[in-house]
Amino acid sequence: MAGGGSLAMRVLSRCGWIRGSDSAVLSRLRDEAVVRPGFLSQAEEDTLTQELEPQLRRRRYEYDHWDAAIHGFRETEKSRWSDASQAILQRVQAAAFGPDQTLLSLVHVLDLEPKGYIKPHVDSVKFCGSTIAGLSLLSPSVMKLVHTQEPEQWLELLLEPGSLYILRGSARYDFSHEILRDEESFFGEHRVPRGRRISVICRSLPEGIGPGRPGKPPPAC
Ligand SMILES: O=C(O)CCC(=O)C(=O)O
Ligand SMILES: [Fe+2]
Ligand SMILES: [Mn+2]
């Protein structure tokens, strides 16, 4: 009978880029795990990549010790941007953060080589507030969210180049997130081959830490 399979697909998939273990988790996280494909134009993607490339190229990829969360990466934190990039980051701020949220002034830039990946983790609540927003450049990847107490609850986010993802509230605190390694990089049945991926990540300050508070700004998560 036509439609049986597609009904199951509809239950599991909120849209073309978010899948979940069940319809309850998909609807519960509707506003807390968000993907906006095509958030960046090709020109905006190129602007960011070209601005970041020279800074990243000066660093070596790190493979680190056995318990590190990220493998095959180099990273930087950036506070000074060209006007064109600043305009992009302002669009991210408007799309992802509320007017009452203050952002970390350092934007986290992470460059994952094709074999690089990020193991499941929850960003530290000491250094990062309730919202994380990331732009993806160059390569598609799959971000997986798994509930820390009930691992049968999960979501998969398909992050294409030029997309913006937003994790807030329960998706940020109650679920771990990871970027799947190439061998495991599937969105459902769909293989998503990994190349080099750059992400540009904006985070809100932990609640209770205002810009006027004395002391050093917290490091990125
Ligand atoms: O690359 C990303 O989009 C996520 C990075 C991440 O999870 C982290 O730095 O805590
Ligand atoms: Fe993270
Ligand atoms: Mn981190």
TrEMBL record:
Any one GO CC term of this protein is: mitochondrial matrix
Q: Which organism is it from?
A: Phodopus roborovskii (Roborovski's desert hamster)
Q: What does this protein do?
A: May function as protein hydroxylase; can catalyze auto-hydroxylation at Leu-110 (in vitro), but this activity may be due to the absence of the true substrate. Required to induce programmed necrosis in response to DNA damage caused by cytotoxic alkylating agents. Acts by triggering the collapse of mitochondrial membrane potential and loss of mitochondrial function that leads to energy depletion and cell death. ALKBH7-mediated necrosis is probably required to prevent the accumulation of cells with DNA damage. Does not display DNA demethylase activity. Involved in fatty acid metabolism.
Q: Name one GO biological process term.
A: DNA damage response
Question: Molecular function (GO) terms listed?
Answer: dioxygenase activity; metal ion binding
Cofactor field: Fe(2+)
Q: Per its record, how is this protein called by name? A: Alpha-ketoglutarate-dependent dioxygenase alkB homolog 7, mitochondrial
Q: Residue ranges of the Fe2OG dioxygenase domain? A: 98-206
